[in-house]
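--- STAGE predict ---
source: upstream dedup step, 1 unique chain passed
mode: sequence only
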Amino acid sequence: MSLRALVRGLAAVAAAGTAALGLTAPSAQASSPVPYVALGDSYSAGSGILPLDPNASLLCARSTANYPHVLAARTGAQLTDATCGGAQTKDFAGSQYPGVAPQLDALSGSTKLVTMTIGGNDNNTFIDAILACGSAGVATLGFGHPCQSLYGSSFDDTIDSSTYPALVGALAAVRAKAPDARVAILGYPWILPTSFDPTCFAKMPIASGDVPYLRDLQTHLNSAVRRAAAATGATYVDLSAASEGHDACAASGTRWIEPVLFGTNFVPVHPNALGESKMADRTAAALGL
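--- STAGE serialize ---
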């Protein structure tokens, strides 16, 4: 048998064995990039992290180091990034800023993957709580629970009465626009540790009794996100265990969230590049990507 005939024979045997094992080369259709749309607020946009996305409005403060970009780079997905800092659920269907299209406009019947963080800005829950508790903490030099005394259950009540139904509506609208997509909504990573850390007060001026108060508020918000995901068939990406110990009081290089003062981001109390990368990790794990 000639060398050429031997090579042809071995190639035929190898091809037959590969076909039998179902290991034939993927089709061009199977290898095409997955159409991926990223929606959501500043935690999705990576607001505060450089470099900024030149394709986004400066008002959105969108970073090219946000978790959607990280996830797309790792998976080869074809990313359309509609995230925008400060977004609320209402900005899915309406224009957030002049020249910024409603986020739902990025979706279509061909979209196969959608991710988001959303809900924290609705009714200014997070913004009002952090600012109010920070101001109150400074006024009492870190003692007591002045924020809880002032606001009681008002933030929690708003989450139940307004934020949760808005989340359900937003996720249902995503499903209507992209019926064949896998939809994932992330919880918010921890901003504060489990208990008051006096060494952190200069960076996060929250009174000792208001640290558990804000932790409970964040737990409540994430629970609303999780319940809305369950109600609409979306995947909830739980960051609570993964982000424990990586809050704004942790050391630089360990923390995922930058503090109010002395942080590295130009937008405080938001994920840094490490945090966005870890959010991408958890999203990929939750979706099996």
